[in-house]
Structures
1.
Amino acid sequence: MRRLLLACRLLLAAVPVLPLAAVPVLLLAAVPADAARIVSLNLCADDFLVLLAPEQVAAVSILARDPSLSVVAPQAARLKTVRADAEAVLALHPDMVLAGAFGAQTTLALLAQRGIRIERIGAPHDFDSIRAETLRLAALLGEPARGDALLAAMDRKLAAVSSRAPARTPSHALAVQPRGYTSGPGSLTDAVLRAAGLIDIGAGRQVSIETLAARPPDVLVQAQSPAFPSLATDWLRHPALAAIPRRTVPPSLLICGGPWTADAVALLAE
Amino acid sequence: MTRWLILGIVLLTVLSLGVGAAGLGVPDPLILWQIRLPRTALALLVGGGLGLSGAALQGALRNPLADSGLLGIGGCAGLGAVIAYYWGVSALFAPALPLAGLAGAGVGCAFLLMFAGRAASGPSLILAGIALSAATAAMLALALTLAPNPFALAEITFWLMGGLEDRTLSHVALALPPIALGCLVLLRLGRGLDALALGEDAAATLGLPVGQTLRRTAAGVALAVGAGAAVAGGIGFVGLVVPHLLRPILGERPGALLFSSLLAGAALLLAADLLARIAPMVLPLAQEPRLGVLTALLGAPFLVRIARRVAP
């Protein structure tokens, strides 16, 4: 690779009329000429970027490689990762940086000063906003066809669930998050429970084990426990809750709203 | 006095089994045995261990400000427990959690005793404790930033504030043996501590094995505080406050304070935990106040009062 670069430089030195911008094209012939170098600093942005435009990835966040958090972990294993650190990002010479709505403010301000385009991604909270955000990002990345394909697959899965007639009265479900917080109306999890034909009784408040044991829901929806030890999820193993039926969903499907969230609906509707 | 304390503990225990998020009164057997019983038992165990440790430390170090929390021993125990928990050791071998807690507390006690042996003055010991607290806080933060769990720093913030909610009988099983052993060691030190009250040299001339008494104090405190911190998080000020509450009634003799401090510590922590459970029922709180926060709120003004009295 280094030899190739050197060869290119020699070539450039010999032929000064060749435009500098042609170098990446020479090196990465498979990539379309208008492809941008894009760095993602946010887990949800990683998911969208890798699914919509894997060829344009300059780097993703380190969380993208964690299979419990990211839906693109297998692909991310082969991609470069970067921390939200201005120096590290600048060294990658990105054209655009994708970031979440919050966090890394000082880093992003520095990058913006250096003339790098910063795009913040939204946090969809239902399937309509997932559609809107997917279309927006697909257009932004110049891949509208891939966006449409992802949404078509999502809608097929959702239609398959809703076409199945509910056999019995719908269950009252409570989705519990670490430390006993419940997902409330208007949240992504609420949208997933409703799409799966469940009645969401969560109010967004924290519940205690004692309240749960005294008034158990028909089904407790929980995210799969992470691979690392976590105090916040340990409490779900409390013996007083052992009798309540549970459904487990991979957290990667619910952390970020996207076309993949339909898989959570399909899992819960089974 | 002992009779009144035992009566108080019995009353508080009955109340504690009847109060919780599910409401007042005798609950469902599942809630009674799996949730309220472990919580009540742990409050008594941890509180008793902290109260007795405070009395023993204040006697052995001849310093009214000695307390496992203030001297950084609680922080050392927390550091040990955090390392055992976040690196998955306690998931493989559950007793590793209290063991690491008491190993941490043991290191802290050893450091302080080494220091106490050389510099006898009260303030310098407290300063050494502050240095130990600062060092453990820094190492704790370092351990958490290196931990495999990216949310460790956030969840440990809650843990360090101490609490007994949602504990199970297995937590009781883990904490009971070391705390009971530690309390036994400390309760047998009464005569040694009485002699030490005259000063180390005077105690030595009375034939007291000073070094051994100090080492036993350290071992007992490490067992009681270390295992307590491993299951209940950071709960401070119980050991500081309890002996001071008892001295006006029982006198200054350290040996006479030990057993009563055990009982009073148990009663105080159970009362504080009851308060934490009742607070969301009467106040517009979304969740229980943390137990360690309550004991600190109750204990900090006390520390100011003692400091004012001790100051020349």
2.
Amino acid sequence: MLLQLNNIFKWVQQGGQRVFLLKDINLQVEEGEFISVMGPSGSGKSTLLNVIGMLDDFDEGEYEFLDEPVHQLKEKHRANLYKQYIGFVFQAYHLIDELTVYENLEMPLLYKKHSGSERKAMVADMLDRFNIVGKKDLFPTQLSGGQQQLVGVARALISKPKLILADEPTGNLNSAQGEEIMTLFKALNDEGVTIIQVTHSEKNAEYGKRIVNLLDGRMV
Amino acid sequence: MLTNHLKLSLRNLWKNRMLSTLNLLGLSIGIGSVLTLIFSVYAYYTADSNLEGQEHIYYLKTTGTDGLSFVDNVFPLLDEIVKSSPDVIAGTHVHGWGNMWLKKGDLELQERTDYVDNDFFKVFTLPLKYGDPETALNKKYSIILTDRVSQKIFGTKNPVGETLIADDSLHVTVTGVFEPISPYSTFRLGVILPNELLRDNPTFMANSGWYNSFTPSYLRLRPNTDISQFNQLVYGLVQKNYPDPSTVASIKAMPHADMRMDAIPVVKTIIHGSIAVACFVLLIVLVNLLNLNTSTMFRRIKDIAVRKILGGSKKSVIFQFCLENGILVFLSILISGVLFLAFLLPGINEAYGADFGKISFNVTKDYPVVLYAFGLGILVTLVVGILPTLRFISVPVSTGIKGKIEAVKSNFLLKNSFIILQFSIAILFICVAIILNSQIDYMKEAPLGFEREHIVVGKIDLDYRDADAAVSNFEALLNRLQADPYVESISTSDVVPSDYPFRYSPFYDANTKRDVRMRRAFTDDGYLETLKIPIVTGRDFDETIDNAADNPVIINRTAMEALGWNTIEGKRLKYKDDPSSGFPVVGVMEDFHYQNMQYAVEPLVHFYQDKENLVAHRFLSVRIMPGHEKSVEELIASEFENMNSRRTYSQEVLTDMVGAQYRLIDGILKTVNIVALLTIFISCLGMFGLISFMAKRRVKEIGIRKVLGAGIFKIIVLLSKDYIVLVGIAALVAFPIAGYVMNTWLGSFAYSISIQWWMFALSGLIAFLITGFTLGLQAVKSALANPVKSLRTE
């Protein structure tokens, strides 16, 4: 068992009323799964992903990640947990514009006290694997959207996470680029990486092994 | 890690080239001026640092019953004090008695000459470059040179033991050379000689009794001296020995450290002003950087979130930010250093030079200033790096990642108080500049009681080698001038307005029982005519009636009133208990401003002196018909250049001499103007950054409003109005402070303008215009932006 959500609730106060973003979510994720989260706009897909990624709090319920009770952990401990085990892929890539491809890939390693030669080897490995060696000195703005997302995925993978969280990873891409990314995810999943992706597209959802449907914060 | 941070910082700065340049510009100029101010204050406070135990050195300050105070005392007083007080370790006079001409080979020069007592070095531990302070003043015919004078005469060699010929008659031996003395030092020395030497001088011996106050007296007292008791002792000696002790209200030992400020009151204003200005400018620079940083934070908020997700700690984010600012700050310190050495230091030297002394920068000596600058840089970096980050760093990553600035709790009060503070300071300086400008204009333009135009003043105190030949030449010149159709009138005198020496005599009228301390001067019979000073009553001097030996005098209106006279019929000016019949008063002249308008018109007395008496006069003033100045000036100049004299002849027009009295205060004005410009400029940089930040935040709102039909002007108003209100509040804060400060300062001028409402209005208007322009630039840009583009960003 990689993670387990039990009766998760999340709400905001609006006009004196509680508006539920997440309502009684129960979800178990095994290692090696590939889950697609689907649902209309505002159904709480991204919120769910943020909660799983520990970027967002929830108001009620229990969350266990690798047998650690996340709901009881302190902020710092929680941060350590997601830094170590979770990689994020964003719809808008969120690469750092001032850094080259190489430096963007290197950045997560800098925060983890790897030695210089070790970092070099890991980044080189990743560049190689994603076939972007020739682009390593370019800045994000010099790349196409598909290439940027490729770098985004590579960056998420470089610290060898157990779980990849992808929030509409193909949302800003055209269909050919999107397919490339999805094929990549499939391959990664085959290698044993657990993936949870949020998507609008039925077609992309098909890549997953399991589909979770949300509506108004509820699993349906 | 560090290289990564560094790389990122440099690229970030480069990416925001425009903002970085603005920042760099504001910072460099700001820090440059702070550096300059700190340096001059530093130079001022360390100038006397070579005096050991300066806290035990005192000078005597006398306050008369008329309220005036002066540092000059009678000569015998010091010796009496040394004899009677057990608290005195040593005492010395330092006074002039005519500046000597010093001759070595063909070289002859005149330098400020001071006479001191043998204990000079026991009071002042001024270090000698050459020679031994223990023995340097032991011999009667010895002379100690300042480094500057020594270099002029002897170059770089050690001159101890060399002989100089003083005033063509005395052979004096160089016994020492001072280490270079800071221009900010209390000491303004040229050469010093032992007082022993003056004992041979009959005029000195005749005039150094208990009634002639001419010498400052310095004392080194024992550390535990009870000063008030000591003062009582001195007062007792005054009561015992002064011919008229009733004129002395108090005589006090004052700390030597206060002497500089006491001597030139403006110095106090300059030094305190410098400190205040340095703090203000620094504050503005800081606030400005904070504002600009806050504005860039909008773009950063996403970066921060990404970094946090990728594992960066808050610490590393703050470090990154500090590094970026650090680069900027230290780069500008470098630039400002160059600015300081190349422009600002020469600039202040030029502005204050003559009265305040030139200062120079020497790394080996002045390294603490470099350290201050360095420390300042670190402080600024930390503050501007950490403060804005704190506001943004706690934004939850899940909102930060979306770049939602609305989610940031915007501390309006804090941000706005910064702007208000900044603009208050800027408006304060503008106010000060305007008021000071008006005051100086007023002093320069005010009617002075004499007509200053069309008068050329020749300086004829030239130390003629052949006095008799000079006098006959001079008489010939006077005749030619009198015959010249373009010359309206001629006067010789030992004073001209703007150059009345500080010479006072106490007079007493037995009938009205009034003591009046009057300023003394010597003029001929053409003086009042040349300057067009009206006679109130009586008559002007007249060479056909008056005889210099009878000492006829003309007093001014103030003097007549001070003496309590209604008429001068049969009046004579007398010293108290003076058995002689006194000086006949022949006339009363209207008050005129013989000194600059910072000072009031005092009782003044002109003594008659023959026009032809060349050596008694220092100035030849000639009123020339407008348009014919050149020929007359050339005539006078050529005549004097032909006379054999030690000094070279020079002449000036009186208007310039009168204007030059305000050099120091002009310097202050110049500085204030620059600071005012600077503060408003830097403030606007910050405001520019902030409004771009606001425009970015409201880009969607602007887009929607435009789609809904708002015109460009409406949008501009929308964006600017808050800031205009803030500037208004700042003005309200600044006005009373400016009013108070300037009122206090204007109080130190004998004649001052009253502060008018339009001065405030004008400074407010200037601030509004400049702000409006700055705001307009950015607001128009935002208003013109295509709404389709801005709305698409969602």
